[in-house]
Design a protein that fits this description.
Strand content: 15-25%
Largest sheet: 7 strands, mixed
Structural class: alpha/beta
Number of helices: 7
Order of helices and strands: EEEHEHEHEHEEEEHHEH
Length: about 240
Amino acid sequence: MDEHSTMYKAGEGRVCALVLAAGRGTRMKSRVPKQFMDLCGKPVIYYSLKAFEDSEVDDIILVTGRDSLAYCREQIVDRFGFGKVRAVVEGGEQRYDSVMQGIRACRGCGCLLIHDGARPMLTRQMIDESIEGARRYGACVMAVPSKDTVKIADGDGFAQSTPDRSRVWLIQTPQSFDYDLIRSAYEAREEAGWAATDDASVVERYTDVRVKLIMGDYRNIKITTPEDIRLAESFIDGR
């Protein structure tokens, strides 16, 4: 199939960024959720919101836990003057529930970028390329080729197969979509009750649109463990 046959006519309209900040971060072993931990003097979530604020994105929807709604409004949005944040909405029990809540909050946009708030190294270039990819292909994700050989394990922890490393990519965010496409896919997921692990897999499962992989950045890490905070600090200091 040639490149032109994968072209997708995306819907016109505003560009919306959905930033997820409802995770508990149990692997961080901290009472403070990872997205609100201090990173070079600012909360982790600040950095991705700032990147979207300074981009071509029109609206930002911030999804967080019930206990963090007031904190996000007062100590994040108001404190740092994020004027593009149109709503702070309550997330759900699982990530896919939170995404569905966010999708409902931004009806009417043409293009939707979904980003993990615990990925602070988001750049303007990533955002621009995500918007372009969503408009061109209907669905695209930031990703990087795996540097390591990957093993598929069986249920007992023994190596079962070894996929070709040249075709293995590590998925990041933003994951970006035509709004009507991702909304209909998530509505189908909700009806089926399928436990999705990422947004692209929902499109893969419930639509016939192919998801385009866009070259990301190895620095675009997700804050998961204390070591990740130190690594992100070194990246920010390097800027």
